[in-house]
Amino acid sequence: MEGSGSQSLGTSSNSSITGRGSNSRGRSSRGRGNYGSHHGRGSGHGRGQRPGGSHAPSADSPNPTTAPSHATPSNSNNRGGRGQRGNRGLRRGQRGGNPNVPRSFGIRLTTDLNTSESDLTSVTRLNVNAQEFVPGQSLAGNSGKSTVRPMARSNQSRKASKSTAPDLPTRIHEDITNGQYECVVCTNEVLPNSVVWSCPVCWTVTHMSCVRKWYSSRERNATQEQNAWRCPGCNSQMSDDPGFYHCWCGKDDNPRSIPGLNPHSCGQTCSKPRATCPHPCPMKCHAGPCPPCQAMGPSQPCFCGKRTSTKRCTETDYTHGWSCHQVCGDPLPCGEHDCQRECHVGLCGSCKVPILSLCYCGRESKQIPCDERGDKRASYNYGQVENGVSEDDNIGRGWFSGSFQCNSICGRAFDCGKHHCEKNCHPQDENAAHCPFSPDMIAFCPCGKKLLADLTNNPREFCTDPVPNCGQVCMKPLPCGHMCRDTCHSGPCSPCMQAMEISCRCGRTKTSSVCHQGDVAKPECMRICHAQLNCGRHEHGEHCCPGEKKAAERVAAKRKHRNTGFSIGEIEAEHICTRVCGRTLRCGRHQCEQLCHRGPCPSCPEAIWEEISCNCGKTILEPPQPCGTRPPDCHFDCRRPRPCGHPQIQHNCHLDDEPCPKCPFLVDTICVCGKKTLKNQPCWFDQPRCGLPCGRKLKCGAHECRLPCHPPGECEDANMVGSQCSQPCGKARICGHLDIEKCHAPYPCKEDKPCQAKTFITCECQRRKQEVKCMATKKNPSPDRGRLACDDECLRLQRNARLAEALNVDPQTHTDDRIPYSDKTLALYKENPQFAQAYERDFRLFAADPAQKLLRFKPMKSQQRMFLHSLAQDFGFDSESADPEPHRHVCLFKTPRFVSAPMKTIAQCLKTKSSAQQALSSQPSTSAGQNASAKPPFNALLLSAPRFGLTVDELDSILRPHYAAYPDIKFLTAFLNDIVIIKGSGPWRPQDLESSLSSLQPKALQTLKSAGACGDVFLCHVDEDSNIVRNNKDDNDVAGSGDGWSAVMRRSARPNPTPVPVSQPASQRNRFVALKRVPKKTEEKPAEEEVEDDWEAAAEKLDDEPK
């Protein structure tokens, strides 16, 4: 055990120096070409690397217990320190000894076969005298042998910390070498053998694959360039794609890792140009920015050029230069003075030395800067300069130099001595100027149209003589462009007062105004420009827009050529929107700061520098992230507690704006109106409703809320003003009808308007009736509604009543098997027997009371009212429905048609009918003459041998043209085994229905046979249970066996208004068609004979034909 412990400790010590982070990310336990030396998750040697660094001591070592542990090289990446994961010992499949020596197992620990016996005895043999193991104490050896001491963990196995170098390139190199540099995209380590990319702005190093994914996932829009993207480290704008992997200086593509060089370096001189230095970088290829230049710069003169300086390159200001701080001394542009400023950059500028100067006329003198003086011009001093300075600095009446023009009038007298010069300041001559008003100077009138010699016979002699005018219009051009309209005059023309039309700025309106003396300011009209700005979102909205007309022409041209767009240059300057866009970007946090524009806004340029996590915090996105990035999808379970207290359903973690699944547990809860406790309601259902009417008193106090179960405060009058509701009043009027006016509680009904309810007026015997309006008011509760007169039917019923009384026919004792109720009454009775029995009892009580003429029932459903109407018809009562829903009810009236109530109840009649049907089905058929009176009338068509696959819709479409001839009959098609039944129903008597079906049968037979839908068509009678009781095929067979009076009686039973003598059996209905020409018999199938629909009309036609 001692030896075993020594060997294990040695292995453990060796494994402790192989950490997780290394030059390779491969798992060393499965490495190729090395055994036992790679014990961590990511050792210093990956697949295919040469074994080096740390190795476990082999069995051939002279002293395996004291084998030194090999330290990790300084340039290796060791991640074993993170979480203490480096010291894991031997892993499965690793071998701590010589890989070429086989292992054997016996009564001692595993050893190499080449180990000597003494070594086995001293190290690996079991020793019964071994000291008891006590945790925390060292093991003392026996027989003077050295004890096994655990080897201390090597300090070299600790993971290197982040670099603290003063310069950025060194920090990048050391962090990449030590596995401490993380990629800002994937957060994994950037290793020396990784393919990397470096930002030229912030010098961030990332994996080339990561930055390419970042580049490909960028968001582009129309305003950005095609290759525009942002650095994942500093968010700087990039214009070029990431490109290919190259060294730091860019000279070598795909550089290989060379021992002794910095990672990702080509080993050549950097030679990158510096921005402010003429010397290239002299260092080897390196990451990050180039260091400052340490060379000596060139000789650099000062700004004035008097001195020269030589400094280090970093201290030399190549951009701004330097100053010697002495007086410049360069000649100024005036040529008279020198620059007195300190040595400066650029030109010396203009001369600002003040100089005493005279104006051209000599009347004004002042100090003027040298550069503001005008051209020097010689001017004569005729005495106007009192203290002036001449060119020779001598004061006198000589010449002087003027250098500026003053604002005074010259005022020098002309040679006449009477007029003076009225020009502005100008150089003076030695002699006075000739007077412009002298007779020799003026030869024309003031307007210049006529000679003075033509106007007067006395020529002018002196300059003071007036100049005669011609009397015509002056017509001299004025400054505004118009002509002077005054009469020929001396002196300047008066201001122009002509009227002119001036257009506004947009050119839509014109106004009349007095001449503006040449300075025309266009007025502004009140027309608002509705042209759309270039952003497409705003209108111009300004008054009198000069570009409105151009905008209209541009829009018209665009509509004409829809495919042609327009550029910014085509938009008028007035219609360019200068507002800030201000729309919220897709991130939802920032607004677009560009000028108002068309189309979508670009993506947000901001970045998020905080971690973005899901709700549970287990899934995190590392910064930086584009602004607006949503939290990541999390695959862990949601841990939000439910407010109801029930356990949460297992589902993935989600955002706060997405609700958790609804709680599926069933609970007992009270409905929203609070009347009923509902069981087994879903827990998430917060508004369970019982469905019962609310029933709360409304504001009026007279009505109740009719809405179904709802929360308090949401009754039908919740949003109404006042104490009235929207329901009708419902109180009984003086006439007995209900007030249908809108609720007016708590005030009583006025009843000032006539009642609009329906009532009936009858004849004297109460058989006839007519529905009229009640028209009762509070002042006239019983208005005169008139009375109907009895007709012949009333008289007939009265005679029948007297005849029954004379024959002593007692309805109480007269019984038979007749069923006095209609099939409709029996069918409605079967639907609700309990309800029908209760109201049948009320009918019998009403019939037994001779004094009661009217009976009103309470409001009920339409199906129940239908039963009462049908039963009233069977009893002989008149029935009507009164009042609108939901107060609609049935009223019964006794008329002379009523004799007495049926002696049999409906239940007894149903029992009798069922017994008769059973007896009829069991009784064999007798002769046709005996059953003729008991046979029911035909009410359906029977189709035999229908076509396979025939449908109801197809059959109805074939017979729809024939159905249109009988609008009052409703046809219902049903399939029974191998036959088809078309049953007719409607408000017809059975005999009339049979007559209509008899006329329809031949038409249907012809149409269906031509369509191949069936074999034959017969008339039949079908009961309520869809049983065929009778069909004319069997009747024809029976009729064919008899003749004589039997056939005559059968034909006479038909409803025939005109008797026709018949000598043939009833089966030969088409005997009149046989009178036509018979076609020749051929071997082919004879054509089907045409069948007349009305044989009686055909017989009359044959009788009318000439013989």
Structural write-up:
The protein has 1107 residues and is α+β, with helices and mostly antiparallel strands. The chain is 18% helix and 11% strand. The protein contains 17 helices and 30 strands. The chain has a 5-stranded antiparallel β-sheet with strand order 27-28-26-29-30. Strands 10-9-12-11 form a 4-stranded mixed β-sheet, with no helix packed on it. α8 crosses α9. The radius of gyration is 63 Å and the shape is elongated. The N terminus is likely disordered.
Instruction: Work out the radius of gyration.
Output: 63 Å
| Amino-to-carboxy terminus distance | 147 Å
Mean pLDDT: 76
Helical content (DSSP H or I, runs of 4+): 10-25%
Beta-strand percentage range: 5-15%
**How are the strands of the largest sheet arranged?**
27-28-26-29-30
Number of strands: 30
Number of helices: 17
Given the helix and strand composition, which structural class is it? alpha+beta
Low-confidence stretches: 1-126, 140-157, 391-396, 925-933, 1039-1089
Principal-axis shape: elongated
Biggest sheet character: 5 strands, antiparallel
